[in-house]
Design a protein that fits this description.
The complex is a heterodimer of chains A (517) and B (971). Chain A contains 29 helices and two strands. Chain A is mostly helical and 517 residues long. Chain A has a two-stranded antiparallel sheet. Classes of the chains: A mainly alpha (517), B mainly alpha (971). Chain A: Keywords: Protein transport, Repeat, Transport.
Chain lengths: 517, 971
């Protein structure tokens, strides 16, 4: 599911400056509505197993006898599955599995309509017939990898307890297939995720993790664990999280990049929530490793690690400080300059939340040399990243001391910031106008208002602000107007208002009353 | 109202009457329609009429009436009755779309507007089938119908371009995309197909291109908030077609009109906007298409003519290139030397040429020309766009671009030299090119502040600008003169001072040029040069350097005001003001003639004041004349009064509202120049100044308060003796001002002056009332601003009348009042007082309360003594408390309150800062120490014991510091 950061309405008056810095932090919240294509760099929710498809489909490869392909019609499949001949059951289940493993357009709906799911689930319990168990598990895995309705059919067929008990199967390939199937079910959403957790999926799953577990198997387990940590509304139960987290910490130390990636994704889900959830992750001491992974050259590792840290700094000042202490500020410059726009954006979002902190944290941000890459990003970044960078600057000017704001201006922020007044996004424009007001407040304290006025004009900002006085968005237009009136309304402008009044002089008189202040 | 023929007939009659030119017939008909519009079926009757009436005027009239009716009534406002009954609403929504689509264009537009008003309220929830209904019409094949749908859709969707992202908005957009995006795409493709099948049918093409324009606009709206999945998947279709439309030309669509943009231009211009939107917001996805668009847009520019009708297209297209060429990852598209040369030669240079339309504006519409050229309201012009492109290219290619243009500049200058009278436009373009190439940053106040170092500005100035200005005739080649003067103006910070000094006499002589632009620019350039700063914060150009030119400068400036078209030229008037301010006492010999000319001007413009800036500078110039002259010769004030009072009287008598506040300020300035008792001429005016009618105008309040303060400073005794009956009126003004949250600080300015200057016995009988009034405000609607002013006032009172008098008057109003004010107001709020003089007044006043008020030592007030001292030390040492309670954020605070009148609209009529305790107390901390010492000698032991029991340690430490500095000890 696509995830974006939402810019909560910031109607706070800047006169309340410093009163509520927590409100500046912008959480990553799922927006119900998304116009964009689903993001390409999200972790996959459900996966179908198509590993043997090539072999299955090409008869010419001269495969072994026992893998010989038997073509069955759908009618034959139904008959065989529902029949009592074990050999035919296996053939039919295998044929089903094979159709579902086809690279293109697997006929999930057609299989579903056959009504054989309960029967396939039943096959899972046939401890005496491992090949049948395996084929059924695979077929069900691939059905569960489809739409929500497909997953639902598998769950309603009673697959959850069956798969959970197969986790402890003697046969590793059956156990592994079950892990996969459970991953698909968990990935459907919070409802089935919690159904699994309530059926106590976690202990047997964690028991599979050991130093001797083959890498491929461990990848599947990690992925399924990540799906068990995923999704909100509601979040996964806290005690489940607490059980999984120590194992994730170990998995993050593995050398396989897929395992690291999926365990980072899991942590990123766990941090994507309220501060008490973030606290659990902070407490387990994983932040230094996450920061280390943020610097990984592997995109699939860096992306979820960055997300996780990005989520942590939406938390309290102390939690943000923990991320800073773990060294996040040293890694960010590189990510702000990353070639991929989505990375730039995510890094800038992270920075914006650090900039929303108290001035001590803002100072660390300055000392760590974050201003030059921020200004660069504002100037040349992708638009999505520029928007986040604007927020970073806005937060900085709200919470920073006058000296810090001066340093920001000296680092050249003004020119790219003013250029972005041409952005085709009303919210960004408004945030910039608010930021400009903040800069003027700082300038007033330094008695440098006039210099700032000149600077803004010189950089072409004045004419842009003037042009915004005709903007169609009311709040934008009013913000622009108020800056012009306050700081640029010229040296003189006689303002006369007519009024009416008759009679003699004013009468000076007053009635006494009791006072109590 | 029933839907009957009779009612239709009646309605027809009334509608007809609303078109009658005679108001006696028209008004009652309008009234009637308004009175029946609440009835059920009224809107349906209108719809019936606009569909079925036999007369076209009635149809149109009914449609306009209907739209206005919808505009006024459709929205359901909370807590107000629903103005349209539900069944009418349903019927309107069911019928309006087909009706709109089947109506002739004139009526279609009205109904389309009505639909979008309804849509704004009801769409999508309460009008779910609107979209389907519209989309279904795309199949009709009838482009009259289709354009109706598109137009309506455009007015419904265009708000997506400016609203903030929200779940509600995005839900709507998603719904629209699901229903609309695919049909729109199919319609787009079909329409383009039709354009090629009808390529030879002019009237069909016109309709089809109108559709394409609307489709392109809809594309912009639907893609504005974010890149929708559908459009990302179909980018190929849209962009390929947009691209080919950009390159399309068809003779049949070309218009003869030179001014008005044709359909082809409008479409291409919108496509440029669409491409710019994608380039800015969806760069990652759009990258594969961008180079093609750059090439197409550039070719478009190369082939587009100079006519005004192409202006919007050309400036949009150039702005697109300007925004792309600044991006690092598109740098390569421009970096080839041939590409750069070609852009410079074919895109930039042609669009910098001075066109016939510019020439026309220069001569016949100078004011507009100056505004565009000087004040930068040229955002959409070709020249401006070309200029932006130069700057954009210079970001990465400053060297090559400068090189290419240097060649052009030289060849254009050579062309000019061959035959100036024919080729002067070449030189104009050369100057413009140099200017845009050289200027990297600019402000009104300082001109160019950052210049391209590769351009030798001084050399160009000496070789090519000065010769034009030195030519014998100031009227020859006016455009080039204006260019040259503008060059001096904007590069004044780059050109060395000696060159500026050489230019000054040239500028002065160009004040005589007949061309309005030329003499205006000359005045403006002089004014700007006179405001340049040199070392030590003085002016760069000194009065001594100007000495040889004073007479000719003043003569030419005033003469320029007599040139046709410049009688109220604000640039000239501002130059006059600035010259006075620079030249100071060297203007004195010319004052008699100057003041005569200024008063004549004042008299003339007061008949019909229309140029606020001109008027303002005129009054500033008058103030300057007065100040400069009277500084050297105080007695001269009389001659100014003689010259000005006649005009002032006329202004006051004719109630010229624009000028009255200025008159008051000039009078304040004149009155303050008097060293002795107030002249009787002023006293005669005094009662008139208290007239309520004057005080009802907010613009009068600050200058009138200022003027009354001047009266009180100079004439308090005269008022007390000769106009005692006017004192209640004066206090009435105070009462009026104090009642207003916006003006209460002005009331305090007045009250402070009364207390400071009026003989005590003259206000004795009113004192209690004054305090009661203030307490009432404090009780009923106190604001931070009020409290700050109140604190300053009571402390000033304490200084003037003594602390005991303050305590007594408070307690006579209500027992224990003094203690309550100390405890609830003074101690907790004193930290909020701002301003040096204000703080000093409070410090001295509180010191008096602490040390000269016996009840503070021996009544129940004693417990407040130490807290008050602590608050006073806080006032000295702690930072100002500038917090304002939440609910006060929304009150307009125009002026910061304080003791002085902050108002100084006329800079040169400004009031000097006044410190009423200046002579009495120099250092308030030392004064506190000395006063405490005095108190402690009067009652030994008391003071140290009060300090040691409850003053906090930090405060005590500060206090010891004061005592040490004053070399006193407490007994």
């Amino acid at each position: 599911m696509p995830v974006v950061s939402k810019h909560s309405e910031r109607l706070r008056k800047f006169k309340n400056k410093g009163k509520d810095t927590a409100a500046l932090r912008r959480q990553r919240v799922e927006v119900n509505i998304e116009l964009r294509k689903a993001k390409k760099d999200e972790q996959i929710l459900k996966r179908r197993s198509i590993s043997f498809s090539l072999m299955d489909e090409s008869l010419s490869l001269g495969e072994e006898k026992r893998n010989e392909i038997i073509q069955l019609s759908l009618e034959e499949i139904v008959e065989a599955v529902n029949g009592s001949n074990t050999e035919l059951q296996l053939q039919a289940t295998q044929a089903t599995r094979r159709m579902l493993s086809r690279q293109k357009d697997p006929p999930i709906n057609q299989i579903l309509e056959l009504g054989i799911i309960p029967r396939l689930v039943e096959f899972l319990t046939r401890a005496d017939n491992a090949p049948l168990q395996f084929e059924a598990a695979w077929a069900l895995t691939n059905i569960a990898s489809g739409t929500s309705d497909h997953t639902k059919a598998v769950v309603e067929g009673g697959a959850i307890p069956a798969f959970i008990s197969l986790l402890s199967s003697q046969h590793m390939h059956i156990s592994e297939q079950s892990v996969w199937a459970l991953g698909n079910i968990a990935g459907d959403g919070p409802l089935y995720r919690d159904a699994l957790i309530n059926c106590n999926v976690i202990p047997p799953l964690l028991a599979l993790v050991s130093p001797v577990t083959p890498v491929g198997f461990l990848r599947n387990i990690t992925w399924t664990l990540s799906n068990l940590c995923r999704n909100k509304n509601p979040y996964p139960p806290l005690d489940a999280v607490k059980k999984v987290l120590p194992v994730l910490v170990c998995l993050m130390e593995h050398e396989d990049k897929d395992i690291i990636s999926d365990s980072c994704w899991a942590v990123s889900y766990l941090t994507d929530g309220s501060n008490d959830r973030i606290q659990i992750v902070v407490d387990i001491g994983i932040l230094p490793r996450l920061v280390e992974l943020m610097a990984s050259p592997e995109l699939i590792i860096m992306t979820p690690a960055l997300r996780a840290i990005g989520n942590v700094v939406t938390g309290t000042d102390e939690q943000t400080q923990a991320a800073i202490d773990a060294g996040v500020l040293a890694v960010l410059p590189c990510l702000l300059r990353h070639a991929k726009p989505t990375v730039q954006k995510e890094a800038a979002w992270t920075l914006s939340n650090i900039a929303a902190g108290p001035c001590q944290q803002i100072q660390q941000l300055i000392t760590s040399g974050l201003l030059p890459p921020l200004v660069e990003l504002l100037d040349k970044g992708d638009f999505k990243a520029q928007k986040e960078a604007v927020w970073a600057v806005a937060n900085f000017t709200t919470g920073g001391t006058v000296e810090q704001v001066v340093e920001l201006v000296q680092s050249g922020v003004l020119k790219p910031l003013l250029n972005l007044l041409l952005a085709k996004d009303s919210k960004t424009i408004l945030v910039i106008l608010d930021t400009i007001s903040n800069l003027f407040l700082a300038a007033e304290k330094l008695r440098e208002t006039e210099r700032l006025c000149l600077l803004v004009e010189e950089l072409g900002g004045l004419e842009k602000i003037e042009a915004l006085q005709t903007h169609d968005n009311n709040m934008v237009y009013r913000a622009a107007l108020s800056i012009i009136e306050k700081y640029f309304s010229g040296e003189e402008n006689p303002d006369l208002q007519p009024g009416t009044g008759q009679g003699g002089l004013y009468d000076f008189s007053v009635e006494k009353q009791d006072f109590n202040f | 109202m029933e839907l009957s023929d009779a009612n239709l007939q009646t309605l027809t009659e009334y509608l007809k009457k609303t078109l009658d030119p005679d108001p006696a017939i028209r008004r009652p008909a309008e009234k009637f329609l308004e009175s029946v519009e609440g009835s059920q079926n009224y809107p349906l009757l209108l719809l019936t009429l606009l569909e079925k009436s036999q007369e076209n005027v009635i149809k149109v009239c009914a449609s306009v009436t209907f739209k206005n009716y919808i505009k006024r009534n459709w929205r359901i406002v909370e807590d107000e009755p629903n103005k349209i009954c539900e069944s009418d609403r349903i019927a309107i929504k069911a019928n309006i779309v087909p009706l709109m689509l089947s109506s002739p264009e004139q009526i279609q537009k009205q109904l389309s507007d009505a639909i979008s008003i309804i849509g704004r309220e009801d769409f999508p929830q309460k009008w779910p089938d609107l979209l389907t209904e519209m989309v279904n019409r795309f199949q009709s094949g009838d482009f009259h119908v289709i354009n109706g749908v598109l137009r309506t859709a455009h007015s419904l969707f265009k708000r997506y371009r400016h609203e903030f992202k929200s779940n509600e908005l995005w839900t709507e957009i998603k719904l629209v995309l699901d229903a609309f995006a695919l049909p729109l795409t199919n319609l787009f493709k079909a329409t383009i197909e039709l354009c090629s099948t009808h390529a030879n049918d002019a009237s069909a093409l016109k309709v089809l291109f109108s559709s394409l324009i609307l489709i392109a606009k809809l594309f912009y709206s639907l893609n504005f908030q974010d890149l929708p999945e559908f459009f990302e998947d179909n980018m190929e279709t849209w962009m390929t077609n947009f691209h080919s439309l950009l390159t399309l030309d068809n003779k049949l669509l070309q218009t003869d009109d030179e001014e008005e943009a044709g359909l082809l231009e409008l479409l291409k211009s919108q496509i440029c906007d669409n491409a710019a939107l994608y380039a800015q917001k969806y760069d990652e996805e759009f990258q594969p298409y961008l180079p093609r668009f750059v090439t197409a847009i550039w070719n478009l520019l190369v082939t587009t003519g100079q006519e005004v009708k192409y202006d919007l297209l050309v400036s949009n297209a150039i702005q697109f290139l300007a925004s792309v060429c600044e991006r690092p990852h598109y740098k390569h598209l421009f970096e080839d030397q041939n590409t750069l040369t070609s852009i410079c030669e074919k895109v930039i240079v042609p669009n910098m040429e001075f066109r016939a339309a510019d020439e026309e504006a220069f001569e016949d519409n100078s004011e507009e020309y100056i505004r565009r050229d000087l004040e930068g309201s040229d955002i959409d012009t070709r020249r401006r766009a070309a200029c932006d492109l130069v700057r954009g290219l210079c970001k990465f290619f400053e060297g090559p671009v400068t090189g290419i243009f240097s060649g052009y500049v030289n060849s254009m200058l050579q062309e000019y030299a061959k035959n100036p009278s024919v080729n002067w436009k070449h030189k104009d373009a050369a100057i413009y090119l140099v200017t845009s190439l050289a200027s990297k940053a600019q402000t009104q106040k300082h001109g160019i502040t950052q210049a391209n170092e590769l351009v030798n500005l001084t050399e160009f100035f000496v070789n090519h600008i000065q010769p034009d200005l030195k030519s014998a005739s100031v009227n020859e080649f006016p455009v080039l003169k204006a260019d040259g003067i503008k060059y001096i103006m904007i590069f004044r910070n780059q050109v060395p001072k000696e060159q500026l000094l050489v230019s000054i006499p040239l500028l002065i002589s160009h004040l005589q040029a007949e061309s309005i632009v030329v003499h205006t620019y000359a005045a403006h350039a002089l004014e700007r040069l006179f405001t340049m700063r040199g070392t030590n914060n003085t002016t760069l150009i000194t009065a001594a350097e100007m000495a040889p030119f004073v007479e000719v400068l003043l003569t030419n400036l005033f003469k320029a005001l007599t040139l046709p078209g410049s009688s109220e030229n604000e640039y000239i008037m501002k130059a006059i003001m600035r010259s006075f301010s620079l030249l100071q006492e060297s203007i004195i010999p010319y004052i008699p003639s100057v003041i005569t000319q200024l008063t004549q001007k004042l008299l003339a413009v007061s008949k019909n004041p229309s140029k606020p800036h001109f008027n303002h500078y005129m009054f500033e110039s008058i103030c300057l004349s007065i100040r400069i002259t009277c500084k050297a010769n105080p007695d001269a004030v009389g001659s100014f009064e003689e010259a000005l009072f006649m005009v002032f009287t006329e202004i006051l008598q004719n109630d010229v509202q624009e000028f009255i506040p200025y008159v008051f300020q000039v009078m304040s300035l004149l009155l303050e120049m008097h060293k002795n008792e107030i002249p009787s001429s002023y006293m005669a005016l005094f009662p008139h100044l208290l007239q309520p009618v004057l005080w009802e105008r907010t613009g009068n309040i600050p200058p009138l308060v200022r003027l009354l303060q001047a009266y009180l400073e100079r004439g308090a005794n005269t008022i007390a003796s000769a106009a005692a009956d006017k004192i209640p009126g004066l206090l009435g003004v105070f009462q009026k001002l104090i009642a207003s949250k916006a003006n209460d600080h002005q009331g305090f300015y007045l009250l402070n002056s009364i207390i400071e200057h009026m003989p005590p016995e003259s206000v004795d009988q009113y004192r209690k009332q004054i305090f009661i009034l203030l307490f009432q405000r404090l009780q009923n609607s106190k604001t931070t601003k009020f409290i700050k002013s109140f604190l300053v006032f009571i402390n000033l009172y304490c200084i003037k009348y003594g602390a005991l008098a303050l305590q007594e008057i408070f307690d006579s109003i209500q027992p224990k009042m003094f203690g309550m004010v100390l405890e609830k107001i003074i101690i907790p709020e004193i930290q909020k007082v701002s301003g040096q003089v204000e703080k000093k007044i409070c410090a001295v006043g509180i010191t008096k309360i602490l040390t000269e008020c016996p009840p503070m030592m021996d009544t129940e007030y004693t417990k407040l003594w130490t807290p008050l001292l602590q608050a006073l030390i806080g006032l000295f040492e702690l930072p100002e408390d500038d917090t304002i309670p939440d609910e006060e954020h929304f009150i307009d605070i125009e002026d910061t309150p304080g003791y002085q009148t902050a108002f100084s609209q006329l800079a040169f009529a400004g009031k000097k800062e006044h410190d009423p305790v200046g002579q009495m107390v120099n250092n308030p901390r030392i004064h506190l120490a000395q006063s405490l010492h005095k108190l402690s000698t009067a009652c030994p032991g008391r003071v140290p014991s009060m300090l040691s029991t409850s003053l906090n340690a930090e405060a005590l430490q500060y206090l010891q510091g004061y005592l040490q500095a004053a070399s006193v000890t407490l007994l």
